[in-house]
Amino acid sequence: MPGLSGPSDYSQEPSRHPCLHINAKEPFNAEPPRSALVSSYVTPVELFFKRNHGPIPLVDDIERYCVDISGLIETPKKLYFRDIRMLPKYNVTATLQCAGNRRTAMSITRKVKGVGWDVSAIGNAVWGGAKLADILELIGVPKLTSCTQSGGKHIEFVSVDKCEEENGGPYKASIPLSQATNPEADVLLAYEMNGEPLNRDHGYPLRVIVPGVIGARSVKWLDSINIIAEECQGFFMQKDYKMFPPSVDWGNINWNTRKPQMDFPVQSVICSLEDMQSIKPGKVRISGYAVSGGGCGIERVDVSIDGGKTWMEATRFQKTGIPYIADGISNDKWAWVLFELTVDIPQSTEIIAKA
Predict the structure, then answer these.
(1) Would you say which domain of life the source belongs to (predicted)?
(2) Does 42 share its domain with 137?
């Protein structure tokens, strides 16, 4: 790709915040402490989890950088970075989460493969960029299109990033064309994060943001966009991030029997306390995050201080001091909801949260 290249080694990696817990050094995968994660509604860039599959790409010449759009469309097009920045800009507050978040806890029950994340492979940011629906309209794909005249039903994003899982080829993923062409889905080609240009770890100069969907579909360091008939056949679409019953293991798995995971499930995490933490009896503030995929919102967060026998409803909020109401018009529908509750802990117990 002119203007953007993927290094062959890790000698030119960017600097990272020293508080991050490193789960893998090469490629670099790291997350912040859970207490720092919910210290603010919008996650600071330096505390946003880093999920990488290879060396971080380098921009050689931003003026030459462009994205190739081709496939089952009438008119293929090269879209330069300056062209994208001339389109109407949208800011979308959205939570990104690695599909492997909380894998360490999962492995306590049953060993799973992949990077061993704790609970912080997630973050909430304000992403700025052009809507993909506007870009596709420029090349003759109208808004709310589910199939092009040539039979294109999916849109594939290909990265400059090279990864081992693709046998040295580029990272790639896809979403349905109907989602890409829907302005209400808020799919972005983003060049800003929290009001600043993307940094290298998070996709500079351009990445995809697919709100409400697992982070694996929000491809970084965008190289090309392909309109295709079937969903992407890449590793992370076809041989990872799928849901199987307990009877399936690595010896009898049949990947073709399950669809790729897209919207992430409803979940909640306590972040103010560590697992198996010793605290003195008395008043304790319990806080954390709750999140759901597909922009569905969080209707309730309940907390138990007796191992699930009884429950109390926690306060939910996105903006400090303003109660969160599911489906409220002033809420960020793609973003997490923070919760808190102060309780009186009389003795040793198990504290649980559910959303």
Answers:
(1) Eukaryota
(2) yes
- The answer to whether position 253 is within a domain reads no
Separation between Cα atoms, residue 221 and residue 184, nearest integer Å: 24
Residue 192: CB atoms within 10 A of its CB come to 17
- What pLDDT digit, counting tens, does each position of 111-156 carry? 888 999 999 999 999 999 999 999 999 999 999 999 999 999 999 9
Q: Give the Cα separation of 10 and 56 in Å (integer).
A: 8
Q: Count the neighbouring beta carbons within 10 Å of the beta carbon of residue 284.
A: 16
The pTM of this model reads 0.96
- The rounded radius of gyration (Å) of the Cα atoms in the chain is 21
For CA atoms 253, 258, 261, 264, the dihedral sign is negative
Q: What is the number of residues in the chain?
A: 355
Query: Domain residues for 314?
Result: 267-354
Q: Are residues 101 and 19 in the same domain?
A: yes
Instruction: Give the pLDDT confidence of 77-123 residue by residue, as tens digits.
Output: 999 999 999 999 999 999 999 999 999 988 888 888 899 999 999 99
String of b and e for 138-164 (b: at least 16 CB within 10 Å)? ebebeeebeebeeebbbbbbbbbbbbe
